[in-house]
Design goal:
Number of helices: 7
CATH class: Alpha Beta
Mean pLDDT: 93
Order of helices and strands: HHHHEEHHHEE
Shape: globular
Oligomer: single chain
Number of strands: 4
CATH topology: Muramoyl-pentapeptide Carboxypeptidase, domain 2
Length: about 170
């Protein structure tokens, strides 16, 4: 199922900066995953800080979330990115796990393709931890993950999921 994604001007504006930054990092440290991981760590921290500040500024987002904890986590991530649910359709949902296919316009994907780097490396070491940190603020029992066998440009979409872990049993009293 192919989903048409809106190309938002704010995301387009990021692409050239991301290309420059990825090129500079790979020129400095090389394209090896271990070296790139180290080179991306500062940028990853910037993303985490920006997302945390954005959530603090927009605490009203939390009032708009509904459903299970995993569904709320999914909604929070999309709100933070400014992506409509229609561009990230849910393909599996239970009380403790939600999986979706992301078709949204991704400036990281464009930049990675332009620089010849691999989304499997860049997305793992640049975007996973900031998403997890956002979820940790909301609910530390939520875990974000991405299926690296289903990631763009190798697939039509990026498959992502949130699981609820360490859920306490219902109190019988």
């Amino acid at each position: 199922m192919k989903v048409d994604a809106e190309i938002r001007p704010a995301e387009i504006e990021k692409v050239s900066g991301y290309i420059t930054r990825l090129k500079n990092i790979s020129d400095l440290v090389g394209k090896d995953e271990t070296c790139l991981k180290q080179g991306l760590s500062g940028w990853e921290k910037e993303i985490s800080t920006r997302r945390t500040k954005q959530l603090v500024k927009n605490l009203d987002w939390l009032n708009s979330l509904s459903g299970t904890e995993v569904k709320k986590g999914y909604q929070l991530i999309l709100l933070q990115m400014g992506v409509p649910e229609s561009e990230c359709p849910i393909v599996e949902e239970t009380e403790t796990k939600i999986t979706w296919h992301a078709y949204d316009f991704c400036p990281y994907l464009v930049a990675v393709n332009e620089t010849g780097l691999d989304t499997k490396i860049i997305c793992k070491h640049l975007t996973e931890k900031p998403v997890q940190e956002l979820l940790n603020i909301f609910n530390p029992n939520l875990r974000f993950s991405r299926n690296y066998n289903q990631i763009r440009p190798y697939s039509e979409y990026c498959e992502e999921q949130i699981e609820l872990i360490n859920q306490l049993p219902n109190n019988p009293f």
